[in-house]
Every structure is written in structure tokens, then in C-alpha cells.
Amino acid sequence: MAHRLPIGGLAIDRSQPLNFTFNGESLQGFQGDTLASALLANGKTLVGRSFKYHRPRGIMASGAEEPNALMGVGQGGRFEPNQRATTTELYDGLSAASQNHWPSLETDVGALNAWVADKVPVFSAGFYYKTFLFPRVAWKHVYEPFIRKAAGLGKATSAPDPDTYEHFHAHVDMLVIGGGIAGIKAAREASETGAEVLLVEQTAHLGGRALVDGERIDGQDAVDWVSSQEADIAGIPNLKLRTRAMAAGVYDHGYVMVYERVSDHVPGAKGAPRHRLWRVRAGQIVIATGAIERPLTFANNDMPGVMLASAVRDYIGLYGVVPGQKAVVYANNDDAYRTALALADAGATVQAVLDVRTEVTGALPEAVRAKGILVQPGRGIAKAKGGKHVVEVVTGALNGDTIGGREEHLFCDLIATSGGWSPVVHLWSHCGGKLIWDADRAMFRPDADRPPTGADGQAMARMTGAANGDLTAAEIIGADQVEAPSESPMAAHWFTPSVGTYRHGTKHFVDFQNDVTAADVRLAAREGYESVEHTKRYTTLGMATDQGKTSNINGLALLAEQLGADIPDVGTTTFRPPYTPISMGAITGSAKGPLFKAIRQTPMHGWNEANGADWEPVGDWYRPYCYLRGREDRHAAVTREVLNARRAVGMLDASTLGKIVVKGPDAGKFLDLIYTNMMSNLKEGRCRYGLMCTENGFLFDDGVVVRTGPDEFLCHATSGGSDRVHAWMEEWLQTEWWDMKVWTANVTDQWAQIAVAGPNARTVLESAGCDADLSAGALKFMDYVEGTLAGCPVRIFRISFSGELSYEIATPAGYGLQLWEALYAAGEPQGIMPYGTEALHIMRAEKGFIMIGDETDGTVTPQDLDLGWAVSKKKSDFIGKRAQERPDLVRRGRKQLVGLRTEDPKTVLPDGAHAVKRVREHAKMTTIGHVTSTYFSPTLGHSIAMALVEDGLSRQGEWLDFPDGKTIIRAEIVDPVFYDPKGEKPNV
Amino acid sequence: MLLLLCPYCDVLVEETELTPGGEAHLTRFGPGSSDLDFQNYLFTRKNPKGIHFERWRHTFGCGKWFHVARCTVTLEVFGSYSAQTLRPPEEILDRIRAKRPDWEY
After folding, report:
1. Cβ of B64 and A734 within 8 Å?
2. Among A119, A550, A660, A933, which residue has the least CB neighbours within 10 Å?
3. What is the side-by-side order of every strand in the sheet holding A649-653?
4. Element housing A535 (H / E)
């Protein structure tokens, strides 16, 4: 079984033992261990169950490519599912739990899936398109709950995350990705030119494969060479090194996202974020991400104890852990013989090296033979046998597509397998770098002639080292500087046939994480999935969290074989960032809680807060929905606020209202184009309600325009729309009518605004002390005057959105609170109360005033809303005029605005309820309109609603049916102006 | 994430500071135009695989609109220029022609 050697292990510090638990069992490892190496050191080779078949799975790899060993790590708010044990650094107190099994890892009911699958192919390629289809009703109650329970990996915690995360921007001349010997070399060479270089390495240490592969560089052991390089780098000021930092994605124009796991290995470390997301802008990118070994595809190749040959070497060399005592090596290349040597040196028995090649004569195989280890050319593994661990292999002679000859049985607890290497070309491909097929090494390598390009049209990235297909140290560093055994060519081998058929419990796994077998890939090809992108989606090959790091090329080759095509003609699937999963916390950075979104506050925010404001977000603003008094609820507060404004007087914090100054000799001409109605003839000191449409002819904002000077207008926009409206004006000014002499400024935040509305409004203003004549004759409805009110400089607009006598008073933001408090005090004898947005909405609905976003949805014209009076017939042009001549916008049958009164005055129609042409019990119904605003009117004592109904303007008096669950609400089409239809109230 | 030069600020700007505005050099068709002209103005946009002239706004900066000539495949940028023109500047057209002899404006 797997065990720890008494000495050795480059990465571990034996003086620092660490305690951890796995599925509740207390175990021990060392500082420097990964969770995977520590588990193997404790003989834990069964670490999870597979996704579909719940087959027992063990650790297969030693790095980011690990498909099997996914576990839940951490506790409480720090618990995180689906963590790769191979990239999780051990720390004291780590708690890990295996996933995807019930009731336990050892005894798993889901494994029944595999037993069933042997009898009938329920989980074969595209199973979810083929099974679980009928009866339809079973989906909701049987299939989906079953699949949800059976599928899926770990479950995220719902506890809040106690850690912090941050984003970090870096601008460098060169970013080198990967701290192996190729990356070290590239970074040092660049630094010698004086360039600012950042070198990032995803693991905790430099060196990559060189640490365990035993070459000598510049007369030193590679390990020592790496150490001396690391010491040198520390002294180079323009070369920065970051370990535990993985380049997750490469994007346009040298933008690279780097995911640094700052304190995953010391959870809760003070003063450090858990993860840091680097947003790097690099002049040049060097990608030295190495290569990933591919497993060979043989029967039961997913059994615990089957590992990548390089991973076996890593566990021995880096962690002093031997994954097995009796090993079989199965390979198609010389490199894997290093594993046989490492195993022998570590005291394990190597039963045999099976090599698919018929001639095996390289220096490494000879060294293996010299150790007395049996090398068997032309033989392969016909089947691995065992249960929760491999115990035996059946071998046979390989002969083209078949395996046969004399069957041999070898007892073993470890199979080290190597099917060759795949360069990690992900980052190269992320931003458009192309690949070429290297038939000699059976791999896709980057095509230097078709690189990702930058803003100058030149290559912005290059690949080096194993990532470039240069798999040996001699190719990377230079043959004269490296002493290493020469390697003879590998032989592509994509599938080892089994003895017997798959009905005898043998499966050849290609994608271990998603449980996709060779048979699945072939079935997909037979069923017509010729495109690799389609096959991927049909079989789910490469779609798991490892994105097929170990499986893509094997699957591709099988597909090509089945289709009778060449591998490069079948092509690869698309590589997409991130290279390995990154945490949501890192993406979020500090943008959570109060920092998630900036909140805009009015000058009266604090007063509102202190006086019962029940907040409602409006755009970026927080506005009081209502002001709660005593123990009343929202509904009671809103009712009180409406009735008080109608009977006495109310005040509204209207500071959020958009305010845009439009100024210049051509301001009037410009506004005539922006608004549907005429603005240039507006007289100084007067206000006019205006509508804005898009070029499509649809209404998109409204508000009151005030002429504040001969060349100056103040345009009010909706609270949520002020930025949009300002940007809209600027766009037209800058890109279409740039000859106009007009300036705009968004002064929304510069002014606080207060609406005082109600029969007593004038009295309130007068008693607050106003130097302007507010009498009905002097300041008429829709008039505007400047003056001083309660000692504050003000602009007073006599406009009304409530239908009452009303003044909107703007004062420089710094006076906002002072004026608010002064008006509140002056209004006390008049019974003044502040009101919130809901009372505002109800009062405007009682008046039949539209609200942008309620009565409009981007498909509604002013004419639909019976606002044709505000659309000029005289103007030769305005934005939207041409569109409003289109046949569809003038046809009969358009939905038009109506008022609704329900049959039962207490019933409030649901918002968005649909009116149907004819109520039918068990059939689809045709809708003819929908509710856009709906309230219970405290003023009128009955429900009111507005709706958009086909031809609604000519259907007054008709009754409509609104199905609502089991009942039908009946409502009569009425005029939408429910309150004060003659408009007498504001005109006093 | 693109880096584009704002010709007003004369700085390279991250794409996150910009708002895209689609195809540049559209001709507005207003009242009196034919249905086809108006339809094309409103809805029909070029989507070239190659050289494209685009509108961008330096929203989180100076607020100015400008135009960019760029290849949508290689992401090569041939230059930024004022939005207040009906046609790309000759020097930018020359720069494109020098690199793409077969290309025609």
C-alpha cells in the first residue's frame, strides 16, 4: 500500500508535523504536503466516488489536472467543496471530506448505478436526452429529484465567508507564466534587458518537473540549479516572483487575470486576504505552463491505484511518499521509465514495464533493465482487476486493434501509466493563438506563426518550454548545458482493447470526472456527432471542473479514429478561462456588503433615516418608501401620507430628480430635437412637461423643462434616468449635431429638491419666509421664480405630480437639510408630514400620470399613452418622429393606456395581470392587455389601476377579465384620471 | 479587455472605462426618408470579420465620444479619431492599407 518513506521529500519539512482529518479520521502529515500526498502517506487511496456510476476513485495526478480527488475542505464559513486534493496545501487542523457518495465513501448506494448500467446502458452518451423522458409528469416528482440527489459534486456552505479578498492591478513589461526551468530562464533573460518582469507560479515552489526528473543543468543537479536561480531572482529588483499565483486567463491586449492563493495554506491569517485577483496588463506574455501527462485508456483504468506515471514520481520525489509497493508501469514513451527507476530506488517492486512500442531501446529503458526490471515491449494492460483498489492486471500482446496472445496476470497495487504529454496550451488559446498537430509527439503544440496579437498587430504572447512542445530539459535550456539521457520517440496509442466485452464490467474511462468512457465517445460518433464541439456536449467529455485536462486529447483521438479522420482535422474544443476554477470571493474582491454598490444619498438622507424612513433603492439612490411612525406598518404609513397630502400638506424629498442644464445659443433648437414637443418657444420663467423618445419612436424619459434664461433650460429627468438622459443628450451633441452651440451639465447632485404638496402648501411656504410673491396671480401653475425661502437661495417651480397645489423647491445641495427642516417646522401648524415614494406613486396614479418604467417598457409610444398632445405636429424633425410614421406604430390594435376599476372595489389587481379575450378553462387564452400600475386608492376608497389594452382608448365602459389563479377579476375600462378630472386642485 | 487611446485625454484607456457605441459613420435618416433607408439606419449594422470603425465613449473619463479603427479578428488597432467627422482620416486609412493591401474602404 501507499506509505511514507523514512527519509526524502523535497517539498516537506519533517520537523513540522501537521494534524488533519479525512472524513472525521485524525491523520498526520508534514508541512509542505498537499492534501493528496498526506492522504497517500496515510494509505488513503480511495478518496471519492465518481459522478455518474459512483465508482471508487483514487488520486490520479499530482497537480491541477487531477480529475478524481475532489473534496470538501475547511469548516463553517470557510468550507469549500470540490477542492482538488492535489493543489490543496496541508495545514494544521485541515478538515477534508470526500464527496459524491451516500451513505459513506466505503459503502455507496449510488454504485448501484454502475451495476444497472452494466445491464442496460442508461448512462451512456447523451443519456439525459434518451432516458427519463416519459411519462412527462414523472420528471417533476421522480426523475429530477433523483438526478439532483445523485448528480452534482460537493455542496457549498450557506454560512457567510469570514475571509477578505482583493483585486490588484499590475502593469509590467513582461509577464512570465510558469516557474519551471523554462519560465525561470525566460524571466531572467528578460530581466537582463532592464524590463519589468513578473514571474508567476501556480504552486508553492519553483522548478516544475525538473525537481523530480533527475537532469543536471550547468553541472548541477536540477534541484540545486533551481535553488540557485531562486536565490538569484530574489536579488533582481526588476524581476518579481509570485508563487501560489495561477494565470487564470489571457485576454485582449495583454490583459491577464492571475489568481493568487495568498493564505489558503494558513487559513484566517491576519492581515492577508485569502485570495488576490491580479489584473495584469503586460507588454509581452511568456507562457511556460508546462505539459500534462495523459493516461492510457485501458479497461478499468479508473480504479484507485491507477496513477499518472509523472504523479507517482512527484509523490516519491517531492513528498517522500510511495503510492504503492508493487507496481506495473504502462507506457508508450521513454519518460515513464523514470517512474520505474524512482519506484525501484524507493524500494518498491516494479513487476514489469509494459510498453506499447515493439522496440524499446532508449537509455532510460536500458537503465530500467539494468535494475533487473522486466520490460515487456508490445504488451498492454487488457484489464485491471480489483474493487476499491487495483490488485491485479491482465496483460496481453498488442496487435493493432486487438489484444491477445498469452494472457499474463501480474499482482500489483499501483499502475503508473503514461500515454505521452499534452502541452498546456490553454492560455495561448484563450486569446486566439492557434495550434498545430505534432504527429511525432502526438500532441497539439502552439503555432508560433499564428500567435495571439496585440494592439499593434504583433504577437503579444509566446510559448516556451514543455508548453511549447519542447518536452526535455535539453530542448529548453540547451543541449550543451544539460546532462540527461536521450529519449527515443514515443508511439501514439489511444485505446487498449480489453478481453471480454463491456458487459463484463469493464469500462475504458476517458473523462474520469464526468464518467465518460471510450464507448460513449464512439457511440456519439456513430450517432452522427461528427463535430468535436457537439460530441463534447453530447457526451459531456471535458465539461467537468477539470475541463478535460487529462481527457481532451484522448477523447479527440478516439473520435477521430471512429470517424476515420485525422486528429488535426477533427480539431480541438475551445479553451476558456479560467484555467482552473477560481473562487467567487476572488472575483468579488472587496465589492461586497456596503462596498458592493455605491449608494447615492440626498442631503436629507440622515434626517430621513432618523425619522422612520423605510428605504427603497431607486437607481443608485436610497429613497424613503414611506416614513413609519410609531408601530404602524408600511400600508398604514402610506395611507396616512397620501391622505395627509390630499387634505393638509405633505413634503417629499425629491432631490433624486434628474436635473440637466442645457445652455447655449442653440439650446432651444437642440431641445426641439430631443423632446417630442416644442421647447424653443417656452417663455422664460415657465415650465413645460416634455417627452423624450428613442429613434424607434418609443418613449424613454419624461420630465418638466424650465426655461431659466434666454439661452438656458433646466431639464428634469426621472430619478433613475438622469445619467442616461444626460449621456443621450451628449451623444447627439457630440456625434450628430456637433455644429450646434450647446453645452449640457448634469447638476442632479448640485441641487436638493423638495416638493411641498397639498391644499396648505402655499401657507407653508409663506410662513417659512419667502421673498418671492407666491400668490395665485403672481406665481401661476407652471410658473418658475427664483428667490429666498427660509433664508436659503431657492428656485421655486409651481408644478405638480400629485395633483395638489404644489411647489417644487430646489436649493443648492448644501442648503438642502436646512431648508427641509425649516419647511418641516413652518408646516407643523398646517399638519405637514413627509411622504415617501409609495405615496408619490399612488397620488400620481390617482391622477392618471404615467411613470417611466411602469407605463412604458421600451415598446410604448406617447400616442399609446394618449400623450399625443405632447408630440409636436409642427416640428419638421425630432428624435423618434420618423419612426412614429412607421405602419406598426400607427396601426389599429396597439395597446393603449386605460384606467381600470374592479367590480369589487376592495380587490386590487395584481401588477402585470393579463386581460384575456375569452376565459377558457383548459386551453390557452389570448391576452389583450396587461396591468401597468395598480393600487388601492386611500383617497377614493377603491382600487385603481392603469393598463395597456388593445385599442383601449376607444373601449371605455367595456369589462375585462383578468384570470388570477382560480378566480377571475373583472374590471371596467374607465378614464385613467381618477382624481380631480378637471384639474382644479393645483390651480388655486 | 481592449486598450484604446482616447484622443481627447491622450491616454490609453481600459475598456472598462469606455462604453461601446457600435458602428461609426452612420447617416441619420429622419422624417421624409424612405422606409428602406430608415430601416437600414435604424437596424442594419455591419458586423465585419476584419477592419471595423466603431464608436466608443470615454464614459468614466472625459465623457467624449470618439471613433476607433480596429480589426475584429486580430484586435489590431489602427487609430482613434474624433467622432465629429463623416469619414475616417486619411492617415488611418493609409495605415490600414499599408498592412492590408487588399482592403478597401
Report:
1. yes
2. A119
3. A784-789, A792-797, A806-812, A751-757, A649-653, A832-834
4. helix A532-539
**Residues from chain A contacting residue B14 (CB–CB below 8 Å):** 281
Q: Identify the H or E element spanning A149.
A: helix A144-150
Number of Cβ atoms within 10 Å of the Cβ of B94: 11
**Cβ pair A802, A846 in contact under 8 A:** no
Angstroms from A887 CA to nearest CA on chain B: 10
- List CB contacts (< 8 A) between A696 and chain B: 42
In 3-state terms, what secondary structure has residue A657? coil
With CB atoms and an 8 Å threshold, state whether A727 touches B33.
no
Per-residue model confidence as pLDDT tens digits over A777-824 = 999 999 999 999 999 999 999 999 999 999 999 999 999 999 999 999
pTM: 0.91
Residue with cell 455591419: B46
What three-state secondary structure class fits A645?
helix
Neighbour-count burial of A76, counting CB atoms closer than 10 A to its CB (0-12 exposed, 13-18 middle, 19+ buried): exposed
As a whole number of angstroms, the distance between CA B64 and CA A250 comes to 29
Please state, as a whole number, how many other Cβ atoms lie within 10 Å of the Cβ of residue B62: 16
Grid cell locating A230: 531562486
State how far the Cα of A974 lies from the Cα of A521, in Å rounded to an integer. Answer: 65
Q: Are A882 and B83 an interchain contact pair (Cβ–Cβ within 8 Å)?
A: no
| Residues A656, A618 contacting (CB under 8 angstroms) | yes
Most A CBs within 10 Å, among B6, B74, B81, B85, to test the A interface? B74
CA distances A12 to A16, A37, A320, Å, are 9, 10, 8
This model of the complex carries an ipTM of 0.98
Other CB atoms within 10 A of residue A62 CB = 28
Residue in B65, B74, B84 closest to A453 by CB: B74
Identity of the residue numbered A111: A
- The stretches of chain B forming alpha helices (DSSP H) are 35-43, 90-99
CB-based contact B55 A735, cutoff 8 Å: yes
The rounded distance, in Å, linking the Cα atoms of A154 and A102 is: 12
Closest-approach residue (CA) in chain B for A452: B74
Please give the Cα distance from A280 to A735 (Å, whole number): 33
Rounded alpha-carbon distances, angstroms, from residue A530 to A442, A543, B64: 21, 18, 49
What's the CA dihedral at B39, B42, B47, B48 to 10 degrees? 80
* Pick among B26, B76, B78 to test the A interface (most A CBs inside 10 A): B76
Taking only the tens place, the pLDDT of each residue in A111-168 is 666 666 555 555 666 666 666 566 666 666 766 666 666 556 778 889 999 999 999 9
| Cell numbers found for residue A434 | 492557434
The secondary structure of A539-585 as a DSSP string is H-TT-STTTTTTTHHHHHHHHHHHHT--HHHH--PPP-S-SS---HH
Q: How far is CA A367 from CA A244, A536, A881, in A?
A: 36, 41, 86
CA A846 to mean position of chain CA atoms: 43
Which parts of A646-696 are beta strand (E)?
649-653, 658-663, 687-693
User: Cβ–Cβ of B1/A251 closer than 8 Å?
Assistant: yes
**Nearest chain A residue (CA) to B35:** A886
Locus of grid cell 396587461? A930
